[in-house]
Amino acid sequence: MKYIRFIIYLFAAIIFCCCANEVALTGGPKDTTPPVLVEDKPANFSTNFNSGEVVLEFDEYISLKNINQKMIISPPFKEDPTITQKGKKVIIKLKEPVKPNTTYCFNFNDAIVDYNESNPLKNFSYIVSTGTYIDSLAFSGIIKDAFTLKPIENALVALYLDLSDTAFKTTRPYYIAKTDKEGKYSFAHLKDTVFNIFALVDQNNSMTYDLITEGIAFIDSSFCIRDSLMKIDLLCFTETDTIQKIIEKKILQSNTTRLIFKFPPKEPRIEFYNEVPDIQEMSFSKFKDTITIQTTGIDTAFMVVYDGSRYIDSLRLIVNNERLASKSKLTFTSGFQAKTYYKSNLFIKSNNILDSLIIDSIMTVSSIDTISDTSYCKLKYADSSKMSLCIDATLQPLYKYQFSLPDSAAKDIFGLYSGKFSGLTTITDENEYGNVIINVIAGQDSVIGITGCSNFIVALYNKDKAIMERAIDMTASDSVQVKFPLLSPKEYSIVIIYDKNGDGEWTTGDYATRRQPEKVEYPKTITVKSKWDIEERIQVIK
Question: What is the spatial distance between Cα 56 and Cα 127, in angstroms, rounded to a whole number?
Fold first, then answer.
């Protein structure tokens, strides 16, 4: 009987095991908590600090993530400390003595994360003083681009005890902070003294303003911290680089050279030596910063480039050889967009100077709905450069036009013949567009007061691109109306530039003369619709 009972129990156990569901083992809920500091030597917020080493121990294994980029030590050391991670510990070894009576802040930001899940310990700081107390003053602010007014991330904000004009360019700051994605920065544990403040987009990690291409910001005078609620907002700008140079030189094709300048030359001048070519054309780009030179008569050009009397560069360029000649082509491109206003002129642009039009008319297919008509329109030179052709056509609104030229419709001065050309556009009338009317009204702000500015630029921007601009002079008037007609339906930002020097463009700042950039406002965003007129009232401060 005992053996029978044993067999029954054994059989039941086998059945139970066979019927059980297989379930994967789990490790419990996901760890979402950051590391916790459990021991610090010397202790955080301690005074009379004189150690050359700091050890921070946490409750779990940790990693350091981008520590060199994220950690900020203020005031900074001349030689950066060595920061290492070992198990659950962060070890800081100083390479130089600390300063007396100084509060040091080791701001890790979110560089300390746990080993398994990379949960960051956010805004962690280790703070000690070499004196008998911890400095406690604080303030904050925002850094924005001076023109777009967008926040600048990772800008270096610097405080100086050295109040000389040269400190920003020659010495490291006494306190430093960095801006976050919203352009915000903050300082804490500062001493009670007088500061100069600067912001710097530090391109070479020197902590000094030593590159003209670096963005900077400053206020006009030194300051003391009044209370922890004090805010200092700065506008960051890039100074004008006055050193002209050619940033690119390129042979587009045989006998065609392009020179691109850093900024538009005022009086460009080119002198050739050894052999002097026949200059067929010298044309400028829309923004006057690019010169295209078409020459004949030489294979290699030796030239000296000047801006007025100022020497810019000496160049040796091979402008004609068999390889270039084999790749040279005469091409046409459309000088019109996908939609064209019916009162506009239609142009076709060539890449070379034309010598002759072999076919002086262009095939035109006009269509509306399912009805189409084929005809021919005359071509004529648009100007004396002979690099642009105008289509002599009467355009009908709502029609689609396709313009076509066959092979060898034109020949250039180098004997090259053009290839096929085709361009398509839809003709629009006033009903396709909207109009914007802006009434600029002069006022006086009780805080800003009179700025002494009577010249303004009113502009419409779409996606950071200027669409239309108008310069206005309000010297003799407190009200000016600005009209922007025939705008494509889309969203625009109204931009007001306080053109203080009256040169018709936004002027950046200058550190040497302590000139701030000209003020820019974005008072409103508008949506333009077809057949609509939008009228806005904008106040400026004279």
Answer: 12
75 forms beta bridges with none
The pLDDT tens digits for 182-195 are 999 999 999 999 99
The partner residues of 190 in beta bridges, in order of sequence, read: 137
Beta-carbon contacts of 265 under 8 Å, excluding residues fewer than 6 positions away, are 244, 288, 289, 307, 312
pLDDT on residue 448: 45
Q: Over the stretch 49-88, which tens digit does the pLDDT of each residue have?
A: 999 999 999 999 999 999 988 889 999 998 989 999 999 9
Against a cut of 0.85, is the pTM above it?
Answer: no
d(CA 525, CA 462): 10
Question: What is the residue-wise DSSP string for 43-57?
Answer: PTTBSS---SEEEEE
Domains and CATH numbers, the chain: 37-129 (2.60.40.1220), 137-236 (2.60.40.10), 246-321 (2.60.40.1220), 332-431 (2.60.40.3710), 433-541 (2.60.40.10)
Contact indicator for 467, 486 with CB cutoff of 8 Å: no
The full DSSP string for 212-258 is TTS-EEE-SS-EE---TT-B--EEEB--------EEEEEEEETTEEE
Total number of residues shown for the chain: 542
